[in-house]
Amino acid sequence: MKRYVLPALILAVLSSSEAWAHTGHGAATGFMSGFAHPFSGLDHVLAMTAVGLWAGSLGRKAIIGLPASFLGAMVLGFWTALMGSGVPMIEVGITASVLGLGLAVLLNLQPPLILAAGACGIFGLFHGYAHRAEIAPALSAVDYGAGFLLAGVLLLGCGVVLEGAVRRVPAISRIFGSGVALAGVALFFV
């Protein structure tokens, strides 16, 4: 099972048609659109996988805490957007999440769980808000939201499993972190 995680992750990244998953390229149509959305952009794939990878490196409580914080904040960001509230600089926040999470993995940051979960929550807020940009006005937000949450769980889980697979060779984790951080820098210029 573990030997298939890295190739699957690479395939997911390479199959992303655009760097940004929230470009407004067509209205979402339901659960499947919500599920596909996080996989359609490099920013979401890298950020969510990095959260899982970082969580795995921080230990047992973080494996639940960081993904839960990210997902909970994603729901809050999505709901905030549905209510019509504005969150400034969404694209900058998402790009900062890719850069920040990549650096956390690269540098093997080991902050207290509350700080790591807080950072993941802030980043998740931006990602959730961006998911709302794809929904057609008459679409059920519940169906779409359930789809993107399930995809988020899968991406976060891929990161945790990836960390477990590379634990014996920490350099691999750092290489992934440096790649995510470099992608974050590049996304600032896209």
Automatic annotation (TrEMBL):
It comes from Microvirga arabica. This is HupE/UreJ family protein. Keywords: Membrane, Signal, Transmembrane, Transmembrane helix. The chain crosses the membrane at residues 35-55, 62-82, 88-106, 113-130, 142-162, 171-189. Pfam families: HupE_UreJ. Residues 1-21 form the signal peptide. InterPro entries: HupE_UreJ.
